Amino acid sequence: MAKEQSANTHGSKLVMALKSIVGAPIPILLLCFSISLGLHETSAYYLSISVSSLGLLYILIDRFNSDSEFSFFRLGFDFPILLLSFCSILAFYSDFNLNLNSFSISIRWALFVYLLTYTLNLFPSLNKIFYSIMFVGSSLAIYGIIQAVIGLDILNGSPVLAAFSSPSEQLWAASGMFQNIPLYALFMCLSACIFFAAFICQKYKWEGAGIFYLILCILSLIAIYFTYDARYWFAIICALAVISYMKSVKNFILYFFSFSLIVGAIFQFNDNFRGNIVRSLQHYTLSQNQENANWESHLQSFKSHKWIGTGLSLEEIDLNSPNNSSNFKNSFLHMLLQGGIIGFAGYALLMLLSVFMCLRLLLEIPKTHYWHQVFVLSILGFLASFHISGLGYYNFSSSPSRLILLFVTAVIAYMSHAYGKGIVPDDRIL
Q: Do residues 242 and 299 share a domain?
């Protein structure tokens, strides 16, 4: 009996030692992953693999412990994830254009959401993660403004030109570290939502911290303006409207009126601002008209594969390639054509359930939990900006944009699980 107890003790010590070794780098990797979402595409991709792999290894080691730390739980949107995975499996075995690599990528993203959620649950660090995103977001906003105003890009040489820029009149656009306007604009939308939520949730908005967050939000909005991309202008306006409306109708009316008055005054009295707005809207309208010309071929493709589409793939896609058969700039249309009715239903359910979980959390989070309110409101606003911009751009065309969506989805699942278990004592415990 004594030998068995001794063996169990040695086994427990070994398990604890292995958990310490595997778990030690995870909090740091989580911070690095959140920072890389706005800085470097390749780093974000490999850090996501590192975080999920170490999280999985930690869970597997923990299963050998007599007093297991981890317990499985549902995320709340398991059914739509299963639908999307099922659609990929059907397409793969139906001999469509989905190769083995595309199939594995689609399944891997589904696993990543689960593993990231479970990892956050085992290594609570939401506040540090969001502080990191806020720091990177404010830095990138300033960097993007410098790119657009003086044409200086220290890391990449020369900045990206605006989409409507001409050889006779070159106009630099803010593109951040990626040299990719949509990716930069998407991350700036997330930053602006966090700063605006931090401002609007302040008890004393026009003092110290409140003014500081408002300034950072304005910097992010200016950076989004300098992308000269009307899709993200509409997206961030809708996102901030959602955040202010969810806080109170009074705030929504006040801020919407103030914003409209300021932008209207600048539009009226600043010729450069008015000209850039008009040219960007004209370019967006022309782009949409060209896209509408492809609807007939897209509709014919859908009729041929109604239920599971032509093969749901989340591989990298070059939207500017003339040889790309998926050359349509609309996330919803892409999901409908490549995922069919089943894939589109999964995507729509995932979108709706994420929003519903945010709304439920806003009812459950106490008013004293300031940062948790900020996190949920900012994610709700970001989801609005992501899906609205998806009407004019395929937001899954690169891994960072997918990772940002999967990250906020995992955060909502984790917070919903934490508040579902019982009372969360303060806003720093997660």
A: no
